[in-house]
Design a protein that fits this description.
alpha+beta; single chain; Double-stranded beta-helix; three-stranded antiparallel β-sheet; binds 2-oxoglutaric acid; binds fe (ii) ion; 7 helices
């Protein structure tokens, strides 16, 4: 029997009592509805083969191979294995692997003209402590904006690129097409295509500038918007358990890896990007 329980005040839901390998359409519709309502859905206690994880993930949309090829699975290019090859040949911790996703709150694929709809992770190995994932609601961020700021930025967009303002050189790690892509332009205020609710679409890792302002004004606005992204009632911190399958909606949530676990321990997830 499916059981759905809210985790955070505004985002996060836990689902127990299902096997994602054998969900009938009616039960999947309940999972999908909970996901739209709560933005982040945690399905507990799954034991999956790679094919099963991919098949289940395809029920949410089309899988998209991540343009950062370094950890994509050789036989299953749509699958990224997070947390592997953490140490270089000389034994040095590779921070690009260890700190992936932990720089700042972001939404996946903002560098793309069509950002990812969803990202789904399955926990394969977990450290003894640390390694949480933080989530925050873009709806709560939008709702918290003062009316004057909303009015000022209505209709405005921001530009995004891999690596953002500080680490643009990291784009060199992407595959050819993505490496040479023009920055993507996305409206700051968007309406979620399925819920009809308004969000503050923003990404601190990849934002370059706000359109229509000079560099100084743009930086000031980025700082101002940053102050509204994380609303206490709009957050959920996920503490991973083995077997968790977690999917988040990139159209209405920000996330960030804590990036604080003991580096000598494994923290491994299967990951897919869904459009
Ligand atoms: O490892 C995590 O907790 C999340 C990393 C991340 O940002 C991602 O997979 O998109
Ligand atoms: Fe991410």
């Amino acid at each position: 029997m499916i059981e759905i329980r809210r985790l955070g005040k505004q985002i996060g839901a836990e689902i127990t009592g299902i096997n994602v390998n054998s969900l009938d359409d009616g039960t999947f519709a309940q999972v999908y509805r909970a996901w739209l309502d709560c933005n982040v859905v945690v399905v507990r206690d799954q034991k999956l083969e790679i094919d099963e994880f991919l098949t289940y993930s395809r029920r949410f949309g089309t899988l998209h191979a991540h343009p950062l090829k370094m950890a994509n699975h050789a036989q299953h290019p749509e699958l990224t294995v997070l947390g592997v090859n953490k140490f270089d040949a000389d034994g040095k911790l590779n921070l690009k692997v260890y700190q992936r996703g932990s720089k700042a709150f972001h939404t996946d694929g903002a560098y793309d003209q069509v950002p990812f709809k969803a990202t789904q992770l399955h926990a394969i190995a977990l450290p003894s402590h640390g390694g949480d994932t933080y989530f925050a609601s873009m709806y709560a961020a939008y709702d918290a904006l003062p009316p004057a700021l909303k009015q000022r930025l209505e209709g405005r967009s921001a530009f995004y690129a891999y690596g953002g303002r500080k680490h643009r050189a990291n784009a060199a790690m992407l595959d050819g097409k993505a490496r040479n892509a023009e920055p993507a332009r996305h409206p700051l205020f968007q309406t979620h295509p399925e819920t009809g609710r308004k969000v503050l679409f923003f990404d601190l890792v990849k934002v370059l500038r706000i359109e229509g302002y000079d560099a100084e004004e743009s930086e000031a606005l980025i700082e101002e918007l940053t102050g509204y992204m994380i609303q206490p009632d709009g957050t959920y911190t996920h503490k991973w358990l083995m077997g968790d399958v977690v999917i988040w909606d990139n159209r209405c949530s920000y996330h960030k890896a804590a990036g604080d676990y003991p580096p000598e321990e494994d923290r491994i997830h299967w990951r897919v990007s869904i459009k």
